[in-house]
Amino acid sequence: MSVSFLENLEKIEPYVGGMPIQELSRKIGIPEDQIIKLASNENPYGISKKVHKAISEYEEYFLYPDGSGFDLVNKISEVFNLKPNQIVLGNGSNDILELCARVVANHESEIIFSEHAFAVYGLVTKAVGAKEIVIPALDFHHDLDGFFKAITKKTKLIFIANPNNPTGTLIDQQKLFEFIQKVPSNILVVIDEAYEEYLEAHLKSKVFLWLEEFENIIVSRSFSKAYGLAALRVGFGVGSSKTISKINQIRQPFNVNSLAQIAAIESLNDLKFVEESAIKNNEQKKILEENFNNLNLLFIKSYGNFISFSLGSPSTALRCYEYLLNKGIILRPISNYGMPDFLRVSIGTEEENKIFIEKLTEFIGNTK
Amino acid sequence: MSVSFLENLEKIEPYVGGMPIQELSRKIGIPEDQIIKLASNENPYGISKKVHKAISEYEEYFLYPDGSGFDLVNKISEVFNLKPNQIVLGNGSNDILELCARVVANHESEIIFSEHAFAVYGLVTKAVGAKEIVIPALDFHHDLDGFFKAITKKTKLIFIANPNNPTGTLIDQQKLFEFIQKVPSNILVVIDEAYEEYLEAHLKSKVFLWLEEFENIIVSRSFSKAYGLAALRVGFGVGSSKTISKINQIRQPFNVNSLAQIAAIESLNDLKFVEESAIKNNEQKKILEENFNNLNLLFIKSYGNFISFSLGSPSTALRCYEYLLNKGIILRPISNYGMPDFLRVSIGTEEENKIFIEKLTEFIGNTK
Predict the structure, then answer these.
(1) Residue whose C-alpha is closest to residue A9's, from A132, A133, A131, A129
(2) Could B232 and A186 be called an inter-chain contact, meaning their C-beta atoms sit closer than 8 Å?
(3) Could you tell me if residue A9 is inside a domain?
(4) B8 or A323: whose pLDDT is higher?
(5) What pLDDT score was predicted for residue B297?
(6) C-alpha Rg value of chain B to the nearest Å
(7) How close B163 gets to chain A, by Cα (Å)?
(8) Residue B16's pLDDT band (boundaries 50, 70, 90)?
(9) Rounded mean pLDDT, B235-259
(10) Chain A within 8 Å of B258 (Cβ-Cβ)?
(11) What is the ipTM score, two decimals?
C-alpha cells in the first residue's frame, strides 16, 4: 500500500515564482550581478537605511521570536490607527491568505475569486479541498456583480485583490464598499492590498475605516513590495477581533521570524522611504507605458509596481521571455494566469528599465 | 449573521511558548540583559561564528527567497547523504509537522500520538478537523504497543517524538524499527527528531537508512535547537520523493526566508559548533541532575537540552515558576502537557545554570 494522501491534492499545481537570479546564473553562465530580475514585483530600491541598521545590530539568533509579535503589532496599530486585537502577523501575506481559507473553508465550501487573480487564491482553495468559483474578468477587471451572483449557501470566502496581480487593475473604493454591503455577513471577504503603497493619495484604500461596520472583512498587507522586505517574509492581516482570534488559533506559533519583525517595525519608522519608492515607481511606470506605446505593444494600465503587456500570441510571448532571459533579464510569463499572450514586467530602476526596453526593442525588431 | 468559522476550531487552545525576555522585562521591570531564559530549549551558546559572518554579509533583503531552497536542499543532501527530492524545507520544523497533517488528514481521519508529547501534534490535528488518539504514556515514555493497538482504518498519521519534548525520553532504534515494520504502509509516520543533535553517538537516529524500505516515514529536523537558529525559523523534512512532492504542492511558495536558508547552509559548514554545543549541554545536564538529586527533586532522565522536574504538586510548581520569574529566570510550566507538578528547565550555560540552581535552592528552602 502507498500512503493515503488526500484526494484534493491531486489537482494542485505548485506555485511558480519568478526565476531566482542564482538559477538563471547557473543556467546561462552570466554572473549574478549582471542579471536584472524584473519578475517578482520586488522593490528595486532595496530597503531603508534605518532598516539596514536595525538588522545589522541584531544578535539574538538563538532565541525564538516573540510569537505574539508584541512590538510589531503595536507599531502597526499605532501607524494605521487600529487596535492590536485587529491585527495578525503572517509569514508574508501569503500566510494570511492561507490562514483565512483554513478558518472558514473545507471540502463542503466554495471560494469565489476572479479570473486572472493572484495564483495563491486557487492554491489555498484546493489545499483545503474547497471548490473554486472563478468569475470571468471584465476586460481584466474583477466583475463584482458576477461575484455577487455567484454567491451560494456554500460560499465561505471571497478573495478580492486590489490592486490585482498580475493585471494591475484597481476597484473603485465606492464600488467595493457597495459590494461589501451586499455580501451576506457570514461570508469572510479578504481584501488583498499587497500593492496599496503604490497608489496615489486619492486612490488609497479606505477599508480600515469600514472594519467597525463589517465584521466579515479582513485586509491583507505585505512588507514584501514597497517596504522592500521580500527576503524576510512578513505581512499582516487586519480584521475583526473575532476573525483575528480564530486565525491565531491555527497560526503557527512562531510563524514570523525575529529579524522580519524588527525590520518591519523599523520600516514603519521610515515611511518616507516607502513613499519615495512609490514616487519613483510611478515615474518609471509612465516611461515604460510610453515605450510600450511606441513599440505598439498593448498593455494593461497598472496600479502596482508591474505592467502586463501583450506580445500578441503565446508563442511570441514565450520567445520574448526566452530572448530576454538569454540577455540576463528575467520577466514573468503569466500563461498560468490565463494570459499566455502576456508577459509581466516589474518596474525596475531607471537603469534597469532602460536595458529592458533596449532588449525588448531588439526582440520586437528581430521578429518583424 | 456572524462569520461561519469551522467548528473544529472551537476546541483549539493556541500554543503557549516560553515567555519572551522582553515580556518579562516589561512585567517586572528587570532590564532584558539581566533575564535568564531557560524556557524554550534554545542553544545558550548562540550561533557559529561562520553563520554570523554569512548573515552579516547578506544584502538582498528586497529579493524574494529561492522558493525551492536549491542551495540549502543540496547542502542537506550532501551532509546527510540524501537525494534532494527526499528533502523539503519548513518555516521551522513546526511547518513540516503541520504540512504532514495537511497532506493526509481531514475531518474523517484519526491521528495517533503520545500523552505528554509535543503540543503541536494536537494543534495540527485539531486544525485539520481530525480526531486525536492520545496514547497514555508508560512512565512518561511513548507506548508503541499502545500506538499499534490504536490503529484503525481511519488512522492516517502517527507522530513520534524522539527524543520527546517535554519529557526528554528516547525510544530505542531497534524498537522503533520493529514498530515501523508493523505499521500499515498507507499510514504516514512522522518521526520528529528536533533534539537529535544532542544524542551521543551510540544513540543517534538510523531512520534515514530506513527510507528506502519504508515509503511512509518522514523525519522532521530543526535548526532551532543545537544549530542555534530559532529566531530565523528553519527546519526540514526527509521522506520518500512522493511524500515530499505532496508536501511541496501545499507548502507556501516562500515559506523559508532567505537569511534562514543562508544561515542553515553555513551552520552545516560548521558542524563542530553543533557538536561542541551538544557536549557542553550534556556536561551541564549531569550537573543539573546532581543538583536535582541533592535537592531531592524527582526528574525525568532527558536526552534533549532540557529537563522536566517535579515539585510534587501543581500549586508548588506554579509557585516555583513565579518565584523564579520574579528573580528574572524564565522556566516553562507544563501543565498543558498533563504534567502540572513539573517544570521544564532548558539547560543553559554553566553560569546560567548556577544562578538557576541557586534560586531554585532558595525556593525549596523557603517552602520547607
Answers:
(1) A129
(2) no
(3) no
(4) A323
(5) 98
(6) 21
(7) 20
(8) confident
(9) 97
(10) yes
(11) 0.97
B354 and B261 in one domain?
no
Report residue A334 as a C-alpha cell: 503569466
Q: How far apart are CA A73 and CA A68, in angstroms?
A: 8
Indicate whether A199 and A278 sit together in one domain.
Answer: no
Looking at residue A10, its pLDDT comes to 85
For residues A213 and A340, state if they share a domain: no
Distance (Å, whole) CA A333 – CA A342: 7
Distinct helix (H) and strand (E) counts, chain A: 12, 12
pLDDT, residue A29, reads 93
Torsion on CA atoms B319, B322, B324, B325, rounded to nearest 10: 180
Q: From the list A231, A253, A259, which residue is nearest B63 (CB)?
A: A231
| CB within 8 Å: B6 and A55 | no
Instruction: Please indicate, yes or no, if residue A2 is contained in any of the structural domains.
Output: no
Residue A259 to residue B60, Cβ atoms within 8 A:
no
Q: How confident is the model at residue B11 (pLDDT cuts 50, 70, 90)?
A: confident
Q: Provide the CATH number for the domain around residue A265.
A: 3.40.640.10
- DSSP-derived 3-state class of residue A176: helix
Q: Which domain holds residue A231?
A: 49-269
What is the least distance, in Å, from the CA of A18 to any CA of chain B? Answer: 9
Low-confidence ranges of chain A (pLDDT < 70): none
Domain boundary among A251, A269, A287: A269
pLDDT at residue B1 in the model: 82
Place of cell 486544525: B127
pLDDT digits (tens, 9 = 90+) for B119-163: 999 999 999 999 999 999 999 999 999 999 999 999 999 999 999
Selected residue of A33, A252, A281, A332 to mutate for chain B interface (largest B Cβ count, 10 A): A252
